[in-house]
Amino acid sequence: MDAAAGELIDWLKVELADWFTAETDGELDINKYFAYDEEWDALFGIEEAYGSHQRMADHHFHYGYFVRAAAEICRVDVAWCGDDQYGPMIELLIRDYAGDDSEEMFPKLRNFDPANGFSWADGKGDAVQGNNNESTSEAANAYGAMVLYGLAVGKDDIVEKGMYMHASTTAAFWQYWNNIDGYNNLGADYNNFPAGYTKITTSIVWGSGADFSTWFSPAYAHILGIQGLPSNPLILYVGQYADYMQDYFQLGMTESTNGKPSGLKANEWTDLWWNLWAMTDADAALADYNATGTNYGAEAGESKAHTYHWLHTFKALGHFKTGTGELTANDPGAVAFDKGAVRTYVVYNFTGQTKTVTYSDGKTVNASAYGFTIEQ
Hints:
Blueprint: H1 2-19, E1 23-24, E2 27-28, E3 33-37, E4 42-46, H2 59-76, H3 87-98, E5 112-113, E6 118-119, E7 132-133, H4 136-153, H5 156-177, H6 180-183, E8 204-206, E9 209-211, H7 220-225, H8 242-252, H9 270-292, H10 304-317, E10 319-320, E11 334-339, E12 342-349, E13 355-358, E14 364-367, E15 371-375
Antiparallel strand pairs: 1-2, 3-4, 5-6, 7-8, 8-9, 10-11, 11-12, 12-15, 13-14
């Protein structure tokens, strides 16, 4: 397994190095590089995708994927992310979508709206309905990637900014996309959905309202599934309310022929829905997965190996417990899961020294250097 992981890291280094440099053998690249535009104070990836140039759209979505990939390299080879190698380029991407007050090359925070607590997708925001945002999970991926990168290279300022933007995004997701307080019947003053709206969630939030739709599909599996990708630990918050997640899953399966991911049409993200289901009922998700076998089409950003790992991990650990405020820890690399009466504490230590992590229930974990420590 270590050899296979090394091969993947080596491939990732080559791929990102190609993007992070603009020349090959002294010649300017045609594709797969970034260029800075002084007029628009923006970094542009070549070639354009989804209006990232013409509309200045989705910079945090797109560049967040690069930072997340780079953070995985930094985790195992911090020298590759040093100031004399690719660290400055990685941080240039972060600065494009999460700039500081003192930033001269980029606008402060670009897409992120501190007043509303989430990010708007479009750079122009010139639609009749105002600006919009669809995939909160891709935004959370971008801001969580900052946390992982900062932890790997030891830059607390990037960690803290990423934690704020990630936490704010996830809180907004629960309030504005899912109306969690209304779902829990806390009273009219807590209800964020308009009277007469009958669904428990929405997909596109506009400056003037919301749409139960996506930009690319009317399928329920896509409308709800878009909030659950990319499938990785930076979106664990999606499953933090188990009862809600079960209802969310059932709504997402509205058009499935059997009420399960195996009954979805091709390209309706069967694997992502197994992953989402596992957050609330891993045994059921794994049973449907096993009944299907591996003869299915993987979502473009998912792999069959990762789906297998995800399902078996949630079967072993149970339900994600940290995230709601009921249980907290004093380290951003610490989470916990409950399976029945068994609580499992999981800590990843990015440093070269043992550290003590304390949870709000009194549990302490002495986390080993450069790796996971798991205790019950």
